[in-house]
């Protein structure tokens, strides 16, 4: 078996260190020295890879965003109706709150989705809202504003539940989806059916993730 280059392994340790620290404390309280100590490298080595701790976070966020996106793509392909896909998208993040504690710490210790996911929830939600607009089912005229409105109401609620160590009951999750879809001008039986969909437990492994091992697995290496 070919040994990975030292640079690859060092960066993987730095990425894992960032994830570990994010699970334990607020990012604002973390220093470059904290990341370096956790990774077992010198501060000088850290700066060989990143210009700042925020650049390190951005790198980790991009890697984990790709993992989330792949997971969601598989999930959303199970539904043909766009309102059902929106329902599963929102309930996916409820499932993280309820059943994936390390991922819940990763997401809901932040101040918004965009701190932990490239583009935030809007990057995933806006195309779906636009699709709903083009189908002439909804009555909204600006997909970006609508997606932002939903995200800005959804994230603080999940963050509050996480801070209080509480799960979000299925009935309340369905009510949130109902409100989100209603804000798009949707109504009727299809709205009720979409909001009551059950999202399966997500197959995400616990954090921290070895980005190197993840990328190797995705490339089909043994």
UniProtKB/TrEMBL annotation:
PROSITE patterns in alphabetical order: HTH_TETR_2
**Record's protein name:** Transcriptional regulator, TetR family
What keyword terms does UniProt attach to this protein? Answer: DNA-binding
Keyword check for Heme: no
Q: Where does the HTH tetR-type domain lie? A: 8-68
DNA-binding among keywords: yes
GO molecular function list: DNA binding
Q: Which Pfam families match?
A: TetR_N
Locate the DNA-binding region by residue range: 31-50
